[in-house]
C-alpha cells in the first residue's frame, strides 16, 4: 500500500485522542522465548497461556443452523473445548462468554451454556457484549481475573445467532400488554383491548444503525473508502484474496479449530464454513452497491455477511497448565482497547490500536510474523492499511512524527478472514486468537497480532507469543 498525500486523507471533525486501556503481563525479550518465560513483571503480572480454542463451522444465517438457538451453538463449543483439551470440568474456575444479539430467555448465555455443557454448577459465569469484539472482551476479562490472582483457569468465548434475532412488539403494544396484565377485571382488559389500532402491530426491529449517529456501518464503510481513496476494484481484489485463501485453508486442513456439528434433522454433518465463495473479478464487478446507491463501492461480496456461529478458548496461568499436564500454544502478552469518533472514524480501531500496542511491547511491524485482523469490509481493511502507511494520519491523529508503515501482507490473514470465513459478531475474537496461535506454530513465527474494529468507534489489538512447547 502506498502512502497517501495529505489532500487525499479525511478531515475528521471533533476528534479527541482515543481512550485506551493497555495490559502488559510480563517483560519479554523479542529474541528469546526463555526470557519471556523466566521474567514475569515485577508489578505482579503472570505468564498467562492460551491452551487451545474451538469453534463451530461458521454458517450463513438461515441455512443449516436455522432451527437451532444461540444456546445450542454455545453449548457445543463448551463441550468440545473440554473434550479437545481434556481438562476436567471442575478445574475450570470461571466462564466468560460474549454475545451481541441477546436472546431474552438466555440473557446470561454464559451460565446457561456452561450448565448444559456439563460444567460444574459451582463455576460462575457471566456474559459480556462489545459488538464485534465481544469475545475479545471475554478473553481479556479472563486475563484480568487471572492476573488479579482470583482464578487460574478460565474459558472465554462468544456466540451469535442471526437466524433468529429478537423482534419486539411496538412500544405502544408493549405498554398496552403490560397494562392489560395488571388489569384486575375482564371489563378493564376489554377496554384496553378496544384501544388497539393497526399501528400497534408494527414490529420494533433491532437497530441496524449506530445509536449515536443513526448511520449503518455499511454507510460508514463507504464513506471511509471515499475518504482514503479506496477504489471498488481494490475492495473486490481484497475480497477475492480473502475467499481464495479461506478456500485453500479448508483444502489444506489448516482450520483445525473447527468442530464437526451434528445438527438434528440434517443427513450430513456440518464440518465446514459455508460462506466461502471463490468468484472472479468480472463477477464481483457486476454487483451493485449495497448501501450508498448508486455510487457506493461496498457490495455484498466485499462485505462480511450475517453469520451464525460460536467459539470458545481456554486460558490459564503457565504454572496451572504444567500442573494439569496441558501443552500451551501461546502466551497472552498484551492488549489495548481504543475508541474514537463513532461517525467519521467508526472502523479505524486497528489503525489506532496497532501502533499503541507495538510501542508498549517494544516491537515493530517487522517483528510480527502473524497478522489476524477482522475484516468487517474490504474498504475498512484497506483504509486502515492506508492510515498506517500515511505520514499525515500519523502526525494528525496518532501524534507520531512519521507513519507506522505497512504490515507484511504475505503474513496477513493467510487463512482468510471474516469476509470469507464469516463473522458471527461475538465469536470472531476467539477465532482470531486460535488462528493466531495455530498459524504461529505452523509458520514458525514468534509473535502474532490480532486487531479488530467494533461498533461505537471502538477497537482492540492483542499480542500473542508462541509458546516453546507449542504443538498443533
UniProtKB/TrEMBL annotation:
Transmembrane segments: none annotated. One of its GO terms (cellular component) is mitochondrion. Signal peptide: none annotated. Its main location: mitochondrion. Its EC number is 2.3.1.16. It is found in: Mitochondrion. Residues 49-319 form the Thiolase N-terminal domain. The keyword Nuclease does not apply. This is acetyl-CoA C-acyltransferase. It comes from Trichogramma kaykai. The lineage of its organism: Eukaryota, Metazoa, Ecdysozoa, Arthropoda, Hexapoda.
Amino acid at each position: 500500500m502506498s502512502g497517501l498525500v495529505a489532500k487525499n486523507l479525511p478531515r475528521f471533525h471533533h476528534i479527541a485522542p482515543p481512550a485506551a486501556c493497555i495490559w502488559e503481563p510480563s517483560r519479554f525479550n523479542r529474541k528469546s522465548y526463555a526470557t519471556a518465560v523466566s521474567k514475569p513483571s515485577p508489578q505482579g503480572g503472570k505468564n498467562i497461556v492460551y491452551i487451545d480454542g474451538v469453534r463451530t463451522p461458521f454458517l450463513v444465517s438461515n441455512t443449516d443452523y436455522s432451527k437451532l438457538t444461540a444456546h445450542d451453538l454455545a453449548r457445543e463449543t463448551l463441550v468440545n473445548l473440554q473434550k479437545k483439551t481434556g481438562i476436567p470440568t471442575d478445574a475450570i474456575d470461571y466462564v466468560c462468554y460474549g454475545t451481541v444479539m441477546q436472546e431474552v430467555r438466555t440473557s446470561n448465555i454464559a451460565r446457561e451454556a456452561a450448565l448444559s455443557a456439563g460444567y460444574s454448577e459451582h463455576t460462575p459465569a457471566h456474559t459480556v457484549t462489545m459488538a464485534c469484539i465481544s469475545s475479545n472482551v471475554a478473553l481479556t476479562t479472563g486475563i484480568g481475573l487471572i492476573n488479579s490472582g482470583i482464578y487460574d483457569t478460565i474459558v472465554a468465548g462468544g456466540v451469535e445467532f442471526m437466524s433468529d434475532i429478537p423482534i419486539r412488539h411496538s412500544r405502544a403494544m408493549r405498554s398496552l400488554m403490560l397494562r392489560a396484565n395488571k388489569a384486575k377485571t375482564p371489563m378493564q382488559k376489554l377496554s384496553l383491548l378496544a384501544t388497539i389500532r393497526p399501528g400497534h402491530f408494527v414490529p420494533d426491529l433491532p437497530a441496524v444503525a449506530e445509536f449515536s449517529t443513526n448511520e449503518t456501518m455499511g454507510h460508514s464503510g463507504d464513506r471511509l473508502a471515499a475518504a482514503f481513496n479506496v477504489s471498488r476494484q481494490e475492495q473486490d481484489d481484497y475480497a477475492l484474496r480473502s475467499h481464495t485463501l479461506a478456500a485453500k485453508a479448508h483444502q489444506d486442513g489448516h482450520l483445525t479449530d473447527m468442530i464437526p456439528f451434528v445438527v438434528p434433522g440434517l443427513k450430513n454433518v456440518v464440518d465446514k464454513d459455508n460462506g466461502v465463495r471463490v468468484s472472479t473479478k468480472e463477477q464481483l464487478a457486476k454487483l451493485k452497491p449495497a448501501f450508498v446507491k448508486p455510487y457506493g463501492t461496498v457490495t455484498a461480496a466485499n462485505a462480511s455477511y450475517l453469520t451464525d456461529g460460536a467459539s470458545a478458548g481456554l486460558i490459564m496461568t503457565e504454572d496451572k497448565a504444567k500442573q494439569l499436564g496441558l501443552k500451551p500454544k501461546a502466551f497472552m502478552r498484551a492488549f489495548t482497547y481504543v475508541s474514537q469518533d463513532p461517525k467519521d472514524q467508526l472502523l479505524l480501531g486497528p489503525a489506532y490500536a496497532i501502533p499503541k500496542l507495538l510501542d508498549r511491547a517494544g516491537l515493530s511491524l517487522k517483528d510480527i510474523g502473524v497478522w489476524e485482523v477482522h475484516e468487517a469490509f474490504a474498504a475498512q481493511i484497506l483504509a486502515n492499511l492506508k492510515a498506517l502507511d500515511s505520514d499525515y494520519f500519523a502526525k494528525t491523529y496518532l501524534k507520531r512524527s512519521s507513519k507506522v508503515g505497512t504490515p507484511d501482507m504475505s503474513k496477513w490473514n493467510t487463512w482468510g478472514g471474516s469476509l470469507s470465513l464469516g463473522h458471527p459478531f461475538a465469536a470472531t475474537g476467539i477465532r482470531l486468537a486460535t488462528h493466531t496461535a495455530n498459524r504461529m506454530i505452523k509458520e514458525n513465527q514468534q509473535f502474532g497480532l490480532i486487531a479488530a474494529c467494533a461498533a461505537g468507534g471502538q477497537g482492540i489489538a492483542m499480542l500473542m507469543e508462541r509458546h516453546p512447547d507449542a504443538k498443533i
